[in-house]
């Protein structure tokens, strides 16, 4: 573009803006001036409205519209605004993607502007949307168009911080919300005051009813003032929507712009269907994805579990295109992230549930694939309405099973939906069953998703009201499971309970039936027929006893009295009777066997039966009937006795917690006392041992000093020499002196001092002894005596002798 052209372009653009602003300014002069125009506007021929500037709108709204790129009103906008702007209640219906959001946003802004609404007035307008995504989208449109207004606006949807919302609700002028979250705030939040509400708008009213929000809507409306303006918008004007219109005043205006249009779906939308068996749907969908990598595709499935499984499994298989999933149970933040991410992409695949089927405005969506047949024709319209919006072109394919074809075509024809059959090009089909099996084997959580998907899908078929369209019994469960990469059909309890048997479920069903019949038999045997039970028990006992008697007879021939150590010779174990096992029975001459048999009979039957009667709380009066009255009475008496015993047993065996506590306390006391005694005894023993050790140590120490650290006495003179010398030096012979002959050999070897000591002791002992023997005193010279005493002293000190 050259500069002159550029200049021209800018000039045009600025002039246009100036014109809008001038228009707006002139209308802004006073609210009264705008309101005055309403009357004229309500009678205007809507087809002549070519620009929003032709409408009596506030300057702020006109500027907001211009800034958001909206110049010309769409059909529904042009048709509804003359009523909605002038304060009338309105029920509006228009095709999907026809601009209903703006048709509700403009009157909302204008209403608050007219009333000079500000934050002090609180809540002025309330918009209720069926889904969080749709609420978010409305919120965005409102923020965009209302940017020049000074109203505060809040989005109240699930999955957000309630506490955060709670504090801020008091000053909010416009609230856009989902029914559940709004009710929660109405119940719990005193800040939310709807007393001065001017306008209530319900968007996608048909969807709100479909989703079962009728009760919530009623509860919400009961909290709102009756003097308000109410607007209701939906894509289809169904009977239910008309019924909901009771929330509007009786003078409400019904605007349905595409009522007489040739087609209910967008005109530039190409619609096909293809026939495919249930088990081929995944392969078909995958083949479509890999063959349309440059397109933006939205794939609808019927349950969250399917959406999750297919998204994750397909991602693992790497389709070569950005693939994401959107389902209701996904957390809110992730839902918004996915939505925004998909919005930004020029080519991508989104696998979604019906959470994305209404109101969501995806830009440049090329394809809508309905992998599962929609529940109703309205659902079909909403799903395909995600593409070919606002006059753009788009394509939609619906996958039908052979048995769905006829009914669906009939329904589409009624609504004038042009559907064409598309033949699947088999050369483009890819079989991914083995790949799915590998993926499931590698990522085990996918197995659960796959199983859940099948159950959810079959359940959805089961719950659908149109049985001509949805017949669960036509599904081959085994092949369906195989198409999900599963080797076996998951347990489908709800079908089992209903007694519905699908292909591949046979075994399970039979098992179930067997199980049930087995249970019934058991019940019959155990509970319902005590007679039967008793009889069978007695038969069993009789047979055991017969075999026992036979065996006993056999051994009786050889010996009169012996002991049979019973092992399982009668195959009792295999009869399941453990009480007669491992029992020592004495068998004697005549009648002993019978005694044993009687004993055995008592042990086996009575306790068991009595216990069972008590356990199962069965009335004993309905019990066994024997041949004779006598026997019967006897048995009854016996049974009553047994029962009494068993009851007593039960009573005594009843767990008395108080008694147990006392016992436990006593036991605890005793145990503690025992422990105390034991500890005291141990302590005493320890002390004793310590004392003993100390004594031994002391003794050891003395011995050690004697033996271990023996003093060196080598320096002492040889005692023999000394003695010799003594003898020589002795004045008067050796009278009374010890001689070697008198000494013991050990004594002889002893040092002199030791010998002396020994002698001393001997002397003492001999003095004390009875056979006293007089000892002669030792005679030594004075010098020698001194020398000797000196040596003695040293030696004694060294020896440590006391
Ligand atoms: N006057 C207008 N001029 C240009 N674009 C418009 C106008 N009004 C609405 N649009 C655009 O048309 C698209 C569809 O609008 P919108 O989502 O409001 O349709 P809808 O009727 O609510 O659809 P659905 O029934 O699917 O919810 C949006 O992208 C919106 O921005």
Give a description of the structure.
Its EC number is 3.6.4.13. RNA helicase. It catalyses: ATP + H2O = ADP + phosphate + H(+). This is ATP-dependent RNA helicase. A motif (Q motif) lies at residues 50-78. There is one protein chain. The protein has 802 residues and is of the alpha/beta class. The chain folds into 5 domains: 44-256, Rossmann fold; 269-435, Rossmann fold (3-Layer(aba) Sandwich), CATH 3.40.50; 491-525, no CATH class; 539-632, no CATH class; 719-799, no CATH class. It is 53% helix and 9% strand. It has a 7-stranded parallel β-sheet. A 7-stranded parallel β-sheet has the order 10-11-9-12-13-8-14, sandwiched between helices. It has a two-stranded antiparallel sheet with strand order 15-16. Strand 10, helix 14 and strand 11 form a beta-alpha-beta unit. The longest helix is centred in the C-terminal third of the chain and has 52 residues, at 657-708. The radius of gyration is 54 Å and the shape is elongated. The termini are far apart. Residues 508-518, 525-535, 548-604, 622-655, 701-714, 731-744 and 764-780 have low confidence and may be disordered. Adenosine-5'-triphosphate is lined by residues 70, 72-74, 77, 94, 96-102, 235, 359, 361, 385, 389-390.
